[in-house]
Structures are given as C-alpha cells and as structure tokens.
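Thread: Newbie trying to understand structure tokens

Hi all, I'm a second-year student working on a class project, and my supervisor (Dr. K.) asked me to get a predicted structure for one chain before our next meeting. I've only ever worked with sequences, so writing a 3D structure as a token string is new to me. If someone could post the tokens and maybe explain what I'm looking at, I'd be very grateful. Here's the chain:
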Amino acid sequence: MAKTLTPAEITAAAEAEAEAAEQRAAVENGDTTVTPAALAEAEQAGVFARLRIKAAEKRAAAQAEADRHKRAEAVADEAAALAEQDDTEDLAVKMRTAVDALYATAADRHDRIKEMAGRVDVIRREAEQAGIPDTRARYGIGRGGYAGELALAVGKTTPTQVRAVSPADAVATAVALALPAGDPYAAGPVSEACTHAPARAKKVCERVPAIGAQFTAPRAASSTRTRPTSSPQGCGCSARRPPSPTPATSPPGSGTDSPLSGPTTTNASSAAPAPEHDRPRRPHRRGLVASPIARNPASRPPVRNFQQSSGSRQPSGASWSSDHRRPEGDMTLRFIGTTSDDGDCPTLYEIPETEEILVQGDRESDPEHLAQLRDVKPSETFVRVPRALLTRYAPRTETPPLQPFSAISHLFRDFRHTAFRLETRRGYASDRNSPKWQRWLNGEDIAAEPPNPWRENVAAQTAQGKRFERVRLVDTPPTEGQRFLLASAPGNLAAGEDIRNLPRADADRLRLPAYDFWLFDSKILARFAFDEDDTTLGVHVTEDPAEVLAACQARDAVWHHATPTSDYAGQVRSSA
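---
Reply by user tm_fold:
Sure, no problem. This is what the structure looks like when written as tokens:
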C-alpha cells in the first residue's frame, strides 16, 4: 500500500498542476516559446499530481472512517452496558421516597401548628369576651405573622414566631434552593418546568413509566400521631358555621394518596372510623366531593396535584389559584373560591371539560344528620360548608367555550370605561415569533417603534377618556421574555396604556390569579388558555358574576401594589 503524501509532497503536486495550467494559458495567448513537448510534459505532470492528491484524500477519508468506526463501536458497547444497568425503578422509588419524606415532615409540622392555632384562637375568643384584648401580653400566646397567615407568637416580651409552611411550599422551595449556588439564572429552567409542571410530568411519565407507576401507587403511612379530626378555629371557620360533634379519631378514610395527589371521595356515611395507625396519613382530612356526586370514584383515575413554583394558596375572596390538581387524562382543577382565612378550608373547584364542581369542607360526622340523609350510595360522602361559599362563589352559568382571540377584538373598541389586562406568564410565543424579538436580541432599541393598529386604537380610545391598564408579573431576575416586554413598553405607554409591574413574590403573597385575562368595564371577563409553549389557544369569555367579581378583586389588589413601568425599569437597570 502506497504511503500517505506528506504536506510538502502535496504542495509540490499542487504546484505542478498549477504549472501545467500556466503553460496551457501561455500557448492560448500566443507564446511561441512553449514547445509541444514542454506543454505535454507539464500537463502530464499536472494530471499525475491531481491523481496523487485524490489518492491521498481517499486514504485519509478511509483512515478517518476506520477511526470513527472504532470509536462508535466503543460508544455502542458502553451505551449497551448503560441500557442494561439502567434502573428506572430505583430512580422512581428514590424520587417517591424523597418527596414522601419531605411532604410528610412538612405536613406533620403544618398540622401541629394549625392544631395549636385552633387552641390559641379558643383562648383569644374567651379572653376577648372577658375584656382581655391581648392574650400574648397576658398569657404569652397569640397569633403571629401577617394577616391571614398561619403563625403563632409565643412569649410575652420578645415573642418567638412559629410560622407554618405548607407541604407544597416545602417541596417547591426545596427544588428552588437546590439549584447551583451563585448562578441567578439557574432558576430559569426550573421555573419554566414548574410553570408547565402538569405537561412536563406527563411527558416524563411517558418516557419513564416506572416514575408514573411509583407516584400513582398507594402512599405508605407516615404518621401514627392521633390528633383531632378538624380544628375549625384554626382556619377561621367556626365563626361562619356551628360546630358539629366530632369523634376523638379521624373520620373515615378513603384509601391512600401520594404526596402529589389530591383527596378522593369517601363513603363517610357507611364506613366505620378506622384506627389512625391503620390508615395512611392524609395532608388534609377534609373531603372533596363532586357535585353532581361522583357515582363511582373507584373507577375514576386518581387526582394528581402538580404544584407550580409558587405553591401558594388563595385567600378568602379570590377565586383563582396557582395550585393545580391534575387527574389522569390531563385535566386541571381550577380553584374557584374559599371562605377560609387560611386557604385550606371550605373551597370550590371546577373540573374542566365537565359540568361538575368539587366541594371541599369538613366531613359530616353527626350520626343524627347522617341518619336523615336520603338515597345514600356507597360511593357518596357529605361535607359541611358555609352558605356564603355557595352564594359568593358557586358558578351561575356553564363553563364558557373556548373562542379564538379574534372573537373579542371588537371589545377593545366597544368598551366604555376600562380594559384591564393581567399578564402572569414568563414569556409569550407571540413575542418570540415577532420581528422585534430578533432585533432586540441583536441589541437594537425597540422602544420607539412606528405606530401599529394596536397603538392607534389605544390612542383613539384613551383620547375619549377610556383607560387601558395592564399589570405584568415579573420574576427576580426577569426572564428573557419579561425583559423584552420591558424594552418594548415605551411605545405602548406613549400610545396611552398604563402599564405596571409586580414581582412574582408579591403576587404569590397577594394570592393573585395563575391565569392571564382581560377584564372589560368590570363586567366581561376573557380568560386566556395557553399551551405548554406559551402559544395562545383562545379565550373563555364570561359574564358570570362570581368569576367577574374574582377578577375585579385581583385587579384591585394588583393595581394597588404594582409599580409603574418607568419606575420599575429604573429599578431593574440599577440592580443590574
């Protein structure tokens, strides 16, 4: 086999080929000094040089392929070994064990604080009736934290604050704080994953079935401590409904839940209370009941609760939530409203794509009441809720159908007073697909853009005294999509919009909606639907009083606390 050409030999061959080309060109230009023999010799040398170069290239390519084939075989052998040793069951079990342990520890602490808060509230009410306004100063016990927060203040002079952390918040915080230290943008991918948790979880379970199987398996019992069934005082519900006789043990259980699954319906009327140690510990011991009553909950897929990154609950008076419960089949429960100060007592949820409502409340345990119920089926259970929960939050109309966004375009001209928008997402596909996006990425100033139909309409409507108001939730640090909106906001402001920004942490504290919406004249609500890529699928348009009221409450809360965009942009620049 011939040897491989050296670089010098390749250079010489190329020069010979070039010399032949020069001799040929000289003859064509009339040079009589070039003889036929010299031209033939030069051309023959050039052809031979080209053949040698091609041969060298082929040999080099063959050698590269041989090396690549050898490396590929080694990688294939290692990949085969990895596939053989890959234990998805071990991954799934460790994921489940870690979440179970964290969730159970947080839930146990939360329940103990809540139980103690109920006892403290009893002392407070008795003291108030006796003319003692401050139980902490007198007895060294009282409520602490912010209004609506589950917290205790222990001590007379310098009280110790004991503040509850929900199990969902504990799981979400553990994920956030486990990110690489020193990288403020490391939270971005996790935040995005948490935002789209249901869809991401579904994909992961499809790719690694063992994980899905592990998290739908019954949850092992994690607590043997006996405590009262409920503490109405602890969640502020006793003032809204009379207490019912409560047995020393918990009400009948309904099977098991994973730490990511929601409560299922139970047969509270026919099953006898089981000993605490014989039942798995539930994060909440209040029932969730479908209305119309679920006829056979055993045949329904388990409800799975994928928390978003904030993991916050809604306060009384708000009918939106960032807490999504998702059953198999990819349906997300939508929080409607609660009359509890602590956010985990009487509550209504809507089951999307159905005409059913889930009702959460204290299970009825009074034997006399249970004996009077009619036509009780084995699958049914019964809960107590305040009348105000239904009068304030029960939907009056059916779930509105999904419409294209163009169906509400006329409202931006026809509204009479105010058009308010809440933007809750970390980015929008419509922004990323716009021509301005790439110009902004290239460092261009997109603040002073020429007029477009949207801004022209804003200017025309605001000239008539109408108001366009918009609040955008922003992360710390802002996401790429949020920085883009901040950079492009001056054009909308110049047209007449009033745009403000609110940190997401403040939004969580205010328990704001987890949905984008437009609200027209405090009367018509258009709630957005997005896919997991932030593409707008359409809007649900409604004038249901309960939904419109909740949107109005969210607007009033967020507008009060949000910062004008010009001021907020200065804060972002100074922090950068």
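A couple of things are worth pointing out once you decode it. The chain has a mean pLDDT of 75. Residues 117 and 565 are 41 Å apart (CA to CA). Feel free to ask follow-ups in this thread.
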